[in-house]
Every structure is written in C-alpha cells, then in structure tokens.
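Suppose a colleague, Dr. K., hands you the sequence of a protein chain of 278 amino acids and asks what its three-dimensional shape might be. Before reaching for any lab equipment, you can write down a predicted structure in token form. Begin with the sequence itself:
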Amino acid sequence: MKKIAILPTLLTLGNAVCGFASIACASKIDLSAEADPYFVLSGWLIIGAMIFDALDGYVARLSRSASNFGMQLDSLCDAISFGAAPAFLVLRMGPGWNSPRLHQTVSVIATLYMVCAILRLARFNVETIPDPLLNKRFKGLPSPAAAGCLASLAILRGEQRIVWGEFGQEWPFLQPAAVRTAIEVLAPLGALAVALLMVSRLPYPHLTKQILKGRRPFRHLVQIVLAGFVIVLVWDLALVLLFWVYAFAIPLRYLWVKSFQRTPAPLSTSGFDDLTPR
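The predicted structure, expressed as tokens, is then:
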C-alpha cells in the first residue's frame, strides 16, 4: 500500500474520534440525576459518527478512491463507534450498582451487543466487495442503525425533563422518574434484540440509496420535505421512532409473511361427497 485517499481516511478517523468521545462523555454521567446532559452529548456523538461514516463512503465514491484499505479501516472505526460506545451507554442506562445482579445481567447484554457488532462488521468485510454502489441491501441490521437505536434512547434519557415535563403533570406515567425507569428496562432488552438482528440474515434496505438515488416523482420530494419538518418539530422523539421502526419493521414483516405461509390449506371435501346427507 503506497497511496491512500486522504480525505476519506480523515473522515473515517473522525468516525472513531466521535465514538471515543462518546465513551468519554458517558463515563461522566451522573446516574443519580434525573436528566444528565452527558447522556445527550454521548448519544449525539454516536449520531455524529454515523454522519462521518456516511460521508467517507460518499467522498470515496465521488473521488473513485474506494479500496479494501478504506473498507477495513471503516470497520475498525465502526467497532469503536457502533460497537464499544453503544455498549458502554447500555451500562449507563441500565439499572444502577445498587442492584448487583441486575447490573451483571446488563453487563452481559452490553458485552453481547459489542461482540455481535464486531461479528457483523467482520462478516460484512468478508462478504462485501469494496464498491458500495453494488451493495443494495444489508445482510442483518447495520451496526450504525443498531447504535442509533441505543443513542436515541440516551438522548431521550438526557432530555426527559424537557420532553416530558409538561405532560407529566397530567399523565403520571410520563413523569421523569417513570420515563427513567422505563428506559432502564427497555435499553438492555432493546440492546439484546438489535444485537441478535445484527448477526441475522434478514435483508435490510439501504435507505439513503432508495430515497436519494435516481429520478423520482415530485410527490417523493414533497414526502421527504414533510418528513424533514416532522423530524425538526419532534426531533427527540423522531430519532427514537426512526431507528426503532427501521430495526423492527423488517423482522415483523418477515414474521407476518411466515405466519401466512404456514397457514394450512383448507382440506378438500371431494372425497366425502358420499357421506354428505341427502
């Protein structure tokens, strides 16, 4: 290897820097506080790593500098940003140290998530060719999407007083303490689910390619603009909905189709015509 693409490589390294910064911010979280800004910062740094991850591939394709070196470096950086950083966030969002048995369980789930993310990235390197243009679908949930699921919960956990404060007066289950307890339960369970989806063989669509590639009708542009306005208006809840719907829509659709395929066909009554009462 004598020459490398400088700009795509720097963008890929920016991905790793965001992941490491996310871990550093998560280590400063005050678990006794109802809402800690480090939850928000750590989650957004993972989102920032996703942006760098998307930009380096786009710049590599634009400059025609996609290479095996870039793909290997990208996976190494993804292991930090979308493997180690979200796993550490799960530890911070789960039950505190006052419940040792629960915390041990959450630690096992966080470790399993990181291991599945690394396995997912290694499998991607082996089965994928360097040119991303020829890869229209992912095999298993992409690691950035899985990390986004957990990062969105961290952002919601940090902003819960702002998001739910005015509603908590009318609905007790939306009070900050109730939301905090719900996230403590849902974060480990969700991490376990997305970890298994990452190493599955379910085909996940490449959303950016399907949305932005090629010529589309005018209504397609209107739908994108309207969706953008909705995301801006409810950005904290929109992140949770976007990532979790993307993660679970495919397996739910798969189970729905399988349930119909397993429905037995109605038995033919042609052989019982003689037994029909006249």
